[in-house]
């Protein structure tokens, strides 16, 4: 039977693969971007900075089939991402594209924009300083595990005194747009992506 457990460093490769397999608006992003790019943006920095806020859904053989990662302080995380993570890892592998011609170029440009005060900076909505990323393989979806993962992370954030949590979803991802309201989030803004918030008090 599947179960949620804390993240372990030995999970990195399996979680990175899940990130790619769900990275194209919920579908398989293999070959859409450099397969290392999405984990460098949306998974690995969270495992590095907040391993205690990372939880894994594993099957009966303890193989990861989903995960949730997050931060309790979006502003501090994004500053660290720009100044430490991306400058030392991302920027050395993916030069800043000029001009932006492809979807992969746009994703790399997003990496450069984070923590720089730009439009794509991921500034937290007022009252929702924490944020998350959650991904489940198709075989793990529809069984309530997304709600369980959200609950586990929310409890960990409450224990830190965090007042609210937010998540963003591409408007091209109808599954995610339906998921967040279903598990208690409310719309709190967003242009290109929809942003949802959950009060933790």
Q: If you had to describe this structure to a student in words, what would you say it looks like?
A:
Residues 16-201 form the N-acetyltransferase domain. This is Acetyltransferase (GNAT) family protein. With 201 residues, the chain is an alpha+beta fold. It has one domain (3-70, 121-199): Aminopeptidase (3-Layer(aba) Sandwich), CATH 3.40.630. The protein has 7 helices and 7 strands, in the order βαααββααβαβαββ. A 7-stranded mixed beta sheet has the order 1-2-3-4-5-7-6, with helices on both faces. Helix 6 (145-159) links the parallel strand 4 (130-136) and strand 5. The longest helix is centred in the middle third of the chain and has 20 residues, at 74-93. It starts with a strand and ends with a strand. 39% of the residues are buried. The model has no long low-confidence stretch (mean pLDDT 94).
Key attributes of the depicted protein:
single chain, 201 residues, alpha+beta, Aminopeptidase, 7-stranded mixed beta sheet, 7 helices, 7 strands, 38% helix, globular, Acetyltransferase (GNAT) family protein, Glycosyl_Hydrolase_84
